[in-house]
Design goal:
The protein has 33 helices and 43 strands. With 1165 residues, it is of the alpha/beta class. The chain has six domains: 174 residues, Toll/interleukin-1 receptor homology (TIR) domain (Rossmann fold), CATH 3.40.50; 156 residues, Rossmann fold; 65 residues; 86 residues, Arc Repressor Mutant, subunit A; 148 residues, Ribonuclease Inhibitor (Leucine-rich repeat, LRR (right-handed beta-alpha superhelix), Alpha-Beta Horseshoe); 226 residues, no CATH class. Helix 15 crosses helix 16 and helix 19 crosses helix 23. The two termini are 55 Å apart. Its EC number is 3.2.2.6. This is ADP-ribosyl cyclase/cyclic ADP-ribose hydrolase. It catalyses: NAD(+) + H2O = ADP-D-ribose + nicotinamide + H(+). GO terms for molecular function: ADP binding; NAD+ nucleosidase activity, cyclic ADP-ribose generating.
């Protein structure tokens, strides 16, 4: 937030705020002295001639100059004012300056009647008699005095002390001047971009009207505008004339942090300004005591600008709210949020795009830029600055009055070399950190920006840097922030500052971090690795050469992360050219995909190693002997194609994650794995050669993955009681049977995946003792014929997937699974055997999804009481052989989706609950019952056409939809939105029907209306079709004469979007004329006086179409007549007709429609 200085010529010319003109012998020691002191206390710069001898005819040159350079002149008329030629000449000069320089003159009538001054009566008349006698040769000068007195006495804003006290008169005059001065001084605010929003938010935190003491913090990163905002708030509060905004004293202590070790000096400055007396206390403790005692009864306004906690500024300048009188307000600006977390905080963030451009233009051009070349270049600079006001001001000022060539050169330079002024300002926050926090910040700036917080915290914790506390400090100092997606982020220029610091080290030959591939390659080629190197984190697509000589020199290296995305044909990484014989024993984080050697160096003893990832490597073994690695928590050896056995795990007591997925030649896992008592996740997915698996003796295990371990025939032995919420995945493994004894003790399993196990014939009854089981998956077990009889004992089961098995009769106890939400038996595998579902008996209270598709269900296969499934939302019965459905299906009040497609023997649609949203049926049934579905089921919103090539059915559906839409008109008029009228068709090609004559892809559509387009009782409205997601639409009806006043405009809120919306949906809605028509705007016009309809779309609209829709529309009627003549599948050639409809012509097309009974054509409503 940049702070432009006031720059008008008028404000620049004033040296003084006020010039005081008075008769010394009358008021110098009384009224005028009091007035001067109050003006001075209020910070109003006042000229008073202290020597004021008041003799002679001509006023001195310096006095004349002071009058000319004063914005206000106060003239104190007293009884003897006119006796002084000095005073009268001074008044003439003042009135001349009023005319010439537009100064403000304020007369005060001190114990005199204004009419006596105006008309020179009483004491003024006597004085002029003496002047006319004494100076009879200067009649012209005397006349000037009279004119000046008359003009001054007639001025507005005067004060007469005869009807008020001196104090009231002084208060009135000073308040009047203060108000005018503040209005002028606050004119600079109009040039501060976005200031109004900040002031409103801060004022709401200050709550000035409440009679308490309050501290409010303004927090943000360096250069974001905290000081500017605080100054604007300070000045604004001092302008207010409301009594609640009147403070006994005010002080703005600027840039406190730069006054290191001078707290006592700051205290003296603060006390002097607030008490209006010189304060000289010798130490900060005395100052603290004096502030607590002297300000207790004062209502003060204080700004403490740019503080940190290094010298405890806040403690000594505003240590306790009790130090200040009621109504006091203290504003604190800081980069450290922690200092003010117990107070109200206004967080200042970077400027938005428009604001950033506006501010940059102020400094680069002084106005809006019109040249297109400069506009384009300006956008590049603004993009680089990322809304940081400091950067926008510095860069804008440096580019002002420069040519295009210089601009281009400067932009190129700033991308490679950051501006030192910007960096040095931002670096203040870095300098305020503890050394260990500085290291953590540099790691984030160089490597971890934009990465997931959890993963990065693991890296930082491995480096013994107090990661949790350190991250909090960085967040509080506005150096980093956490996004809503839990990623660590920072401003671009903050990152640039961090990397700038590291590059300074590089220039000194002591670079500590590398993040650019080219720098890494250069170091390897030139063998320039040094002891200073701490971290390398590079990503590349190219093959890297790693130098042993360079690696040997980097003995302090704690992070080595080389991420390579080049793959060989066999799925392994191609990363490194050459061997690696030395690795730093100081490594904490070691990631090197495609590691080229058969094993790690024998000298590698990384006792502090936390994370090891060598996926896609050439390893045959990790190391031969047992290693003592007490800190190691994660090993990833995935895609180790040549690895045949794992290392000895004895020296890894803290191992938590072991990833051996896709190790296709791995035959055994070392028996010492049971020593890893803290193991949380063990994944051996697709280890096809694995035959031997050790006894699992681990209480902490949460995930065991053995999917696609084809050679593993025996279920692993597990001797200890597992941790709650363990998941076991053994899908598509070679397991032949499940040991009954195992499930008697491992009751904490939450997910058991046995899908695709080819030889599994039955589940042991002990599986029903898994009281914590939430998901059970036996999908695709081709020999599994039954579920255990006591399956209903699984009290917490929520999902049971038994698709593609031989289970034809689920146990009756299954209905006791009252937490079950998803149940599937689809694709039952026995020919000639019919599936039967047991009576529900008011069980399965939570069931939401039931899939019995292709289960060879016939009449009676579904329970008659299926309607008691009160929570059921989706029922899939497609591909079955029943002719009728249970009547109770109409009682499924929660049902939203019903799939009856490919049910070839179903003779009629069942009676359904009116709340149904989506219905899948065959095209024959869809055409047959379409009118009934649209008119009787108002909540039905979706029609699906899976046959992308059958345009005839698609068009017929759309025509029939609008033919029936008139039945919805009552709902449309009664509703606040058009959501009830929206209907959607799922069509893979997202085609807009051809009979929508006005089509396009823009964000708006306009259509000229034909002559006499409006036919009462026949015009239904404007039919709209679109693909995508529409938030709302605005419709405009424009008169032929283009009379703007009579335009009809209406915003249409569309709320039909739901969880079933897809990109393939084509949406239809109708805009009735009544929604648009406003008689008060028509000015006597009829609808036919309007010749243009225009719609604006808000949202993600891909395509759209518009047409006028009439009752008994010829196009629709022709298609419907074709259906009446053909109850069988429709097969007609395509033909085009032109029909004249009441003076307007409409083209329409009747398309071929066919539906083959031999091919499944699935449509869903």
């Amino acid at each position: 937030m940049a702070s432009p200085s006031p720059s008008s010529s008028s404000s620049a010319r004033w040296s003084y705020d006020v010039f005081l003109s008075f008769r010394g012998e009358d008021t110098r020691k009384t009224f005028t002295s009091h007035l001067y002191e109050v003006l001075k206390d209020r910070g109003i710069k006042t000229f008073q001639d202290e020597k004021r001898l008041e003799y002679g005819a001509t006023i001195p040159e310096e006095l004349s100059k002071a009058i000319e350079e004063s914005q206000f002149a106060i003239v104190v008329f007293s009884k003897n004012y006119a006796t002084s030629r000095w005073c009268l000449n001074e008044l003439v000069k003042i009135m001349e300056c009023k005319t010439q320089f537009r100064q403000t003159v304020i007369p005060i009538f001190y114990d005199v009647d204004p009419s006596h001054v105006r008309n020179q009566k009483e004491s003024f008349a006597k004085a002029f008699e003496e002047h006319e006698t004494k100076y009879k040769d200067d009649a012209e000068g005397i006349q000037r005095w009279r004119i000046a007195l008359n003009a001054a006495a007639n001025l507005k804003g005067s004060c007469d002390n005869r009807d008020k006290s001196d104090a009231d008169c002084i208060r009135q005059i000073v308040g009047q001047i203060s108000s005018k001065l503040c209005k002028i001084s606050l004119s600079y605010l109009q040039n501060i971009v976005g200031i109004d929003t900040h002031l409103k938010k801060i004022e709401s935190l200050l709550e000035i009207g409440i009679n308490d003491v309050r501290i409010v913090g303004i927090c943000g990163m360096g250069g974001v505008g905290k000081t500017t905002i605080a100054r604007a708030m300070f000045d604004t509060l001092l302008v207010r004339r409301d009594s609640s905004y009147q403070f006994d004293g005010a002080c703005f202590l600027e840039d406190i942090k730069e006054n290191k070790g001078r707290i006592n000096s700051l205290q003296n400055t603060l006390l002097s300004k607030l008490l209006r007396e010189k304060a000289e206390y010798n130490n900060k403790e005395d100052g603290k005591h004096q502030m607590a005692s002297r300000l207790r009864s004062k209502k003060v306004l204080i700004v403490l600008d740019d503080i940190d906690d290094k010298d405890h500024y806040l403690e000594y300048l505003a240590g306790d709210l009790d130090w200040f009188g009621n109504g006091s307000r203290i504003i604190v600006t800081t980069r450290d949020k922690h200092l003010i977390e117990k107070f109200g905080i206004h967080l200042v963030t970077a400027l938005t795009g428009h604001e950033a451009i506006q501010l940059f233009n102020q400094y680069a051009f002084g106005k809006e830029v019109s040249d297109e070349h400069f506009k384009k270049l300006s956008l590049e600079v603004v993009k680089y600055a990322k809304g940081l006001p400091l950067a926008l001001r510095v860069l804008g000022s440096s580019l002002r009055n420069r040519g295009i060539t210089v601009w281009k050169s400067a932009i190129e330079q700033m991308k490679n070399n950051p501006n030192s002024k910007i960096v040095e300002n931002l670096k203040i926050s870095y300098d305020g950190l503890e050394p260990i926090q500085q290291e953590m910040f540099l790691d984030i700036a160089c490597f971890f920006r934009g990465k997931e917080k959890g993963a990065i915290m693991q890296v930082l914790k491995s480096c013994d840097c107090g990661a949790e506390y350190g991250l909090d400090v960085l967040i509080e100092r506005s150096l980093v922030f956490i996004t809503k997606y839990s990623k660590i982020e920072m401003h671009d220029l903050i990152q640039e500052m961090g990397r700038y610091i590291v590059n300074l080290q590089k220039n000194l030959g002591e670079c500590s971090r590398l993040w650019l591939t080219k720098d890494f390659e250069e170091m390897m080629i030139n063998n320039t690795g040094t002891m200073a190197m701490e971290a390398i984190w590079v990503s590349t697509y190219s093959t890297l050469r790693i130098s042993n000589e360079a690696m040997k020199n980097m003995k302090r290296l704690r992070i080595l992360y080389i991420d390579n995305w080049t793959w060989s044909s066999d799925g392994s990484y191609i990363t490194h050219d050459g061997s690696i014989e030395y690795l730093s024993n100081n490594l904490r984080w070691f990631v090197l995909p495609g590691y080229p050697r058969e094993s790690l160096p024998s000298t590698f003893e990384p006792k502090m190693l936390v994370h090891l990832k060598l996926s896609g490597n050439s390893l045959r073994y990790l190391w031969m002997e047992t290693k003592h690695l007490p800190s190691l928590r994660r090993i990833d050896l995935s895609r180790s194609k040549r690895l045949m056995r794992t290392p000895d795990f004895t020296g890894m007591p803290n191992l938590e994650y072991l990833d051996l997925t896709w190790c296709s030649n791995l035959e055994e896992v070392h028996h010492s794995l049971g020593c890893c008592r803290k193991l949380i996740r063990l994944d051996l997915y697709n280890c096809k050669s694995l035959m031997r698996f050790p006894c699992v003796n681990v209480e902490s295990l949460e995930y065991l993955g053995l999917e696609y371990c084809d050679s593993l025939e025996k279920f692993p032995e597990i001797h200890r009681r597992m941790k709650p919420e363990i998941q076991i995945h053994m899908g598509d493994s070679g397991i032949r049977e499940l040991p009954s004894s195992y499930f008697q003790y491992q009751t904490h399993i939450t997910k058991l995946d046995l899908s695709g196990i080819r030889n599994l014939v039955a589940l042991p009854s002990s599986i029903c003792r898994l009281k914590s089981l939430v998901r059970l998956n036996v999908w695709g077990c081709p020999k599994l014929e039954s579920l255990p009889e006591e399956i209903g004992d699984l009290d917490n089961l929520e999902e049971l997937d038994a698709k593609c098995t031989l289970i034809s009769r689920p146990p009756s106890s299954i209905v006791r699974l009252n937490k079950l939400k998803i149940l599937s038996f689809s694709s039952f595998g026995y020919d000639g055997v019919h599936f039967e579902f047991p009576p529900v008996a008011e069980g399965l209270h939570s069931l939401e999804h039931l899939d019995l598709s292709y289960c060879n269900l016939i009449d009676g296969g579904l329970p008659e009481d299926i309607g008691s499934l009160s929570s059921l939302k989706e029922l899939c019965l497609d591909g079955n052989n029943f002719e009728h459905l249970p009547r109770s299906i109409a009682q499924l009040g929660a049902l939203q989706i019903l799939d009856l497609s490919d049910c070839k023997r179903l003779t009629q649609l069942p009676e359904l609950h009116p709340g149904l949203n989506v219905l899948h049926v065959d095209c024959h049934m869809a055409l047959k019952f379409f009118r009934d579905l649209v008119t009787k089921r108002k909540k039905l919103q979706r029609v699906g056409l899976d046959d992308a090539h059958n345009d005839s059915i698609y068009n017929l559906f759309a025509h029939a939809l609008f033919q029936n839409i008139s039945s919805l008109r009552h709902d449309i008029f009664a509703s606040d939105s058009l959501s009830e009228s929206v209907f959607s068709i799922v069509h893979p090609w997202k085609k807009i029907p051809s009979w929508f004559h006005h089509q396009g892809r823009d964000s708006s559509v306009s259509a000229n209306l034909p002559k006499n387009w409006y036919i009462p009782d026949k015009f239904l409205g404007f039919a709209v079709c679109y693909s995508g997601r529409l938030i709302d639409s605005t419709a405009e009806l424009i008169s032929v004469c283009d009379d703007v006043i009579s335009w009809m405009t209406q915003k249409l809120a569309l709320s039909n979007h739901s969880e079933w919306d897809t990109e393939s949906n084509i949406h239809f809605f109708l805009v009735p004329l009544a929604v648009l028509w406003d008689t008060s705007k028509a000015n006597g016009k009829t609808p036919n006086d309007y010749g243009l309809i225009r719609l604006f779309f808000s949202g993600e609209v891909k395509k759209y179409g518009l047409r006028l829709l009439y009752k008994e529309d010829p196009e629709v009627e022709a298609l419907l007549q074709m259906r009446k003549n053909n109850n069988e599948p429709i097969e007609h050639s395509t033909r085009i007709r032109r029909i004249r409809y009441n003076n307007s012509e409409h083209d329409f097309m009747i398309n071929e429609a066919s539906c083959s009974s031999g091919k499944k054509q699935k449509s869903h409503f």
